[in-house]
Amino acid sequence: MILPIVAYGHPVLRVQCPDIDASFPDLQKLIADMWETMYRSNGVGIAAPQVNHAIRLFVVDTEQIVEGFDEEDKREYPNEKGIKRVFINAHKIEESGIPWAYNEGCLSIPKVREDIKRGEVVRLRYMDENFQEHEESFDGITARVILHEYDHIEGKLFIDHLPPLKRRLLKKKLDDITSGKVRMDYKMLYPKK
């Protein structure tokens, strides 16, 4: 089932989410719905808070990015290997490497894109959809997408990485999203007025 995506300004996007266990109600259905919602909205990742669930869960598919690389991308990211993965109870162990800028957007903040600097590598401890524990490092585009989704379960948004002046310049656009003036071809859940 395609779920509505929570729009900027909704309080669930600012919650530092708690861990869950295997008894979380209808977890496998929620994961399946998140995949369907993410693909329907042309995303490469989506976190549970974006579908109004304040839990430590996100899904990422960077295989689709790597498959879509043009020749320039292949030269710039020659070792990039995409993943398609579920992350439950993820906790960042380390973010390392030289911070690099990449133009990011967010399904919850439609029509806003900005260059955001993040580390080259992220090391996480997490569980998969079968609650098997993993500790793994990711780099490149995959690390970037993971860090973006990880921010969501920490109650942060990509715009929080911008300097204050840049954030002030975005205020009108952000207010328009919060008030429901920005419409997308996917269903949005706007904050209550």
From TrEMBL:
Identification of the protein by name: Peptide deformylase
Necessary cofactors: Fe(2+)
Listed NCBIfam families: pept_deformyl, PRK00150.1-3
Matches recorded under InterPro entries: Peptide_deformylase, Peptide_deformylase_sf
Co-factor binding comment: Binds 1 Fe(2+) ion.
Keyword set, alphabetical order: Hydrolase, Iron, Metal-binding, Protein biosynthesis
Active-site positions on this chain: E149
Enzyme Commission (EC) number: 3.5.1.88
Family: Belongs to the polypeptide deformylase family.
Domain of life assignment: Bacteria
Binding site for Fe cation: C106, H148, H152
Catalytic activity: N-terminal N-formyl-L-methionyl-[peptide] + H2O = N-terminal L-methionyl-[peptide] + formate
Root EC class: hydrolase
Function field: Removes the formyl group from the N-terminal Met of newly synthesized proteins. Requires at least a dipeptide for an efficient rate of reaction. N-terminal L-methionine is a prerequisite for activity but the enzyme has broad specificity at other positions.
One Pfam assignment: Pep_deformylase
